[in-house]
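User: Working on a comparison across species. This one is Protein ImuA from Sphingomonas psychrolutea. Can you predict its structure so I can line it up against the others?
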Amino acid sequence: MSSAALPSATLAHAAIVAELRESLKKVAGDGLRRRPVLPFGIGAIDGALAPGGLRLDSLHEIAAASPSPSDDAAATLFMAGIAARAWGPVLWVVRRRDLFAPGLYQAGLAPERLIYAEAADDAELLALMEEGLRHRGLGAVVGEVKRAAMPNTRRLQLAAEGGKTVALLLKRHARAASDKGGGNPLAVPSAAVTRWRIASAPSAALPIGVAGVGRAMWRVELVRQRGGESAEWTMEACDETGRLALPARLADRTDRTADGAGRAYRRAA
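Assistant: Here's the predicted structure for Protein ImuA from Sphingomonas psychrolutea:
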């Protein structure tokens, strides 16, 4: 079949994939032997994860606890923090141009590490993610979709296996609760190794007489993981290195233990 006989949507999709391949050719691996998991550096979370951190050769799904802008931003920055702690370039595939680069930078993800790709629909987005995962030269591949069926997530998981590129898929809330899943983006079965739900939480109070608000707080829920249990924590939001932290009152209490070992809960090296 000649190219003239192909549907315009198919041609556009092929052109975008070809453009992405050209961009990925410019990305060279660092030649280093990388870890099989990416720890959070917080004992409470890493201890709850079956391999001691996020598997790098796997798909991980994240969703905001509600459609509110604050929860959506928290889920996005949670992903940015993970990608920031990965080893190299990051491919971020979007459906709309609403990412706030300074916010990603504050979560540790520097602009020079990012490769952006814009997809026309969820199908094209998932195809671009798969292409990025198979490239093997990226530290993380991130995408944002409204719908991804089990076969879609299985393809992403298979593309990630055997590599060291972590796949992060943000499941956005549908506009109508009547859509499949009842308004819960994580209700649809998935091949993801872990599934997370992120919500904003009240900031910690500052000392009396100090103006402003404390560091942002998130409710981090590990909804499901392969080979492990679910769990939930309230954490301080990602800092400029992409790391979460225990709330100050809990970290201070831990720091006063006899051997001082609890300090690792507050901040990873």
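For your comparison, note: The domain at 34-266 is CATH 3.40.50.300 (Rossmann fold).

User: Helpful, thanks.
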